[in-house]
Structures are given as structure tokens and as C-alpha cells.
Amino acid sequence: MFKHALLAAVLLAWAAPSPAEYGDVVINNYSDAAGMRPVIFPHWFHRVRFRCKVCHADLGFQFKAGGNQINMLKIIDGQFCGACHNGELAWSVENCNLCHSGKPRTPTHVHESTLTKLEAAAPARKP
Ligand code: HEC
Ligand code: HEC
Ligand code: HEC
């Protein structure tokens, strides 16, 4: 019995998704410059509700923090976040602060992802 429980625990740990999937993505290509707080996209919160394909294929989100040119015109037009945050599938764009909730001047990055840690360990790699 005990052996089986231990094995199960090890397998569970093995199957846990990589930290990048849990991370929040801070998106700040334009926000600071426009006087808005940076956007925080809670990736895990969304990932448990939708398949990767919905966002990364159907909605065209690039697999890269900050890799999409997102602005409010596009969102109101139903692109990117606006495909869902339209007051039907999810609360709508009036709730500025729910998305623009980052600390001012936080650069675009994935919070607590493997990539972030690697970059911190090897700062010379940064452009
Ligand atoms: C569903 C999430 C969401 C909501 C709600 C939202 N935004 Fe944004 N907004 C974004 C994202 C994502 C970006 C791109 C961020 C970046 O790259 O800096 C953005 C960018 C912006 C920008 C800079 C680009 C541009 O379009 O000029 C401004 C200004 C802005 N938002 C204002 C607002 C205001 C004002 C509200 C409320 C009326 C609002 N946003 C609500 C997600 C949201
Ligand atoms: C609700 C939409 C949504 C879903 C579902 C989703 N993602 Fe994402 N993903 C995003 C957004 C938005 C970003 C950040 C893009 C940006 O900053 O412009 C992102 C970023 C990423 C990144 C880049 C992180 C980095 O280090 O730069 C990876 C990798 C990723 N997603 C993988 C996945 C995988 C794998 C799944 C399914 C298990 C998934 N995503 C599901 C919206 C989604
Ligand atoms: C595929 C649909 C979809 C897309 C695309 C999407 N969201 Fe969401 N989002 C949701 C749903 C559904 C909820 C839950 C709404 C609720 O609880 O009423 C949510 C909730 C949130 C929350 C609140 C999380 C919490 O802890 O309560 C934030 C913040 C958010 N979204 C930001 C964004 C931003 C920023 C983008 C674009 C980069 C985005 N979302 C794109 C569907 C989406």
C-alpha cells in the first residue's frame, strides 16, 4: 500500500506542468507609455478553462510574452482579449483595472517562469 502511494506521489510530481504555464504574463509594450498600469494576464487561470488552441491558434496569440501588438481598438473590435472580454463570455472592457493591474514600470515578462529564472541566472544573454 505504502509503496503504491509513494509511487503515485512521484508520478504526480512528474506530470506537473512546467512553471511557465502557471506564470502570470506581464504585458507592457504600450501601457506605461500611455499612462496605464501594465496588464497582468493570469495564464494558469485561463489555461484551466480553455484549450491552448483556442488562444494560440484560433485567436492568433503568439507563444511569446509581449509578442503580440495588442491595443484597445483591437480589443474593442473583438480581437485578442476582446474575443472573450466582451460582456458575454467574460466581463467587458469597462473594467480597466482588472486587466491593467500591474505595478507601473514592470517590464513585459512571465512572472515566475523557468525562462525568467534562466534569464536572471544568465543576464549576459539579454540584448
Ligand atoms: C480584458 C483586458 C483589458 C481591459 C479590461 C482593458 N485593457 Fe487596456 N489593454 C489590454 C492589453 C492586453 C493591452 C496591451 C498592453 C501593452 O502591450 O502594454 C492594453 C493596452 C491599453 C492601452 C495602450 C494601447 C492603446 O490602445 O492605446 C491603453 C491606453 C489602455 N489599454 C487603456 C485601457 C482603458 C482606459 C481601459 C478601460 C476602459 C482598458 N484599457 C481596459 C487589456 C485590457
Ligand atoms: C485564454 C487564452 C490562452 C490560453 C487558453 C492559453 N494561452 Fe498561452 N498565452 C496567452 C497569452 C495572452 C500569452 C501572452 C502573450 C503576450 O504577451 O502577448 C500567452 C503566452 C504563452 C507562452 C509564452 C510564455 C513566455 O515565456 O513568453 C507559452 C509558452 C504559452 N502561452 C503556452 C500555452 C499552452 C501550452 C497553453 C495550453 C496548455 C496555453 N498557452 C493556453 C493566452 C492563452
Ligand atoms: C478565450 C477567452 C478569453 C480570452 C481570450 C481572455 N480571457 Fe480573460 N477571462 C476569461 C474568462 C471566461 C474569465 C472569467 C470571467 C469571470 O469570472 O466572470 C477571465 C478572467 C480574466 C481575469 C480575472 C482573473 C481572476 O483571477 O479572476 C483577468 C485579469 C483576465 N481575464 C485578463 C485577460 C487578458 C489581459 C486577456 C488578453 C491578454 C484575456 N483575459 C483574454 C476568458 C478569456
Taking the sheet with the most strands, its summary is: 3 strands, antiparallel
CATH topology (level 3) name: Cytochrome C3
Strand content: 5-15%
| Relevant CATH superfamily | Cytochrome C3
Percent of residues in helices comes to 25-40%
Number of strands: 3
Please write the string of helix (H) and strand (E) elements: HHEEHHHHEH
Query: What sort of overall outline do the alpha carbons produce when their principal axes are compared?
Result: globular
The structural domain count equals 1
Structural class: mainly alpha
Summary, kept brief:
The protein is mainly alpha-helical.
What does this structure look like?
- By secondary structure, the chain is mainly alpha-helical.
- The chain has a single domain, classed as Cytochrome C3.
- It has helices spanning 2-15, 19-22, 43-47, 52-58, 72-76, 96-99, 114-121; strands at residues 24-27, 39-42, 109-111.
- It has a three-stranded antiparallel beta sheet with strand order 2-1-3.
- The radius of gyration is 18 Å and the shape is globular.
- It binds heme C (3 copies).
- One heme C (HEC) binds at residues 27-31, 34, 36, 39, 70-73, 75, 81, 85, 93-96, 98-100.
Key words describing this protein structure:
7 helices; 3-stranded antiparallel sheet; 3 strands; Cytochrome C3; 127 residues; binds heme C; mainly alpha; 9% strand
Give the topology:
Elements: H1 2-15, H2 19-22, E1 24-27, E2 39-42, H3 43-47, H4 52-58, H5 72-76, H6 96-99, E3 109-111, H7 114-121
Antiparallel strand pairs: 1-2, 1-3
The chain binds heme C (HEC) (3 copies).
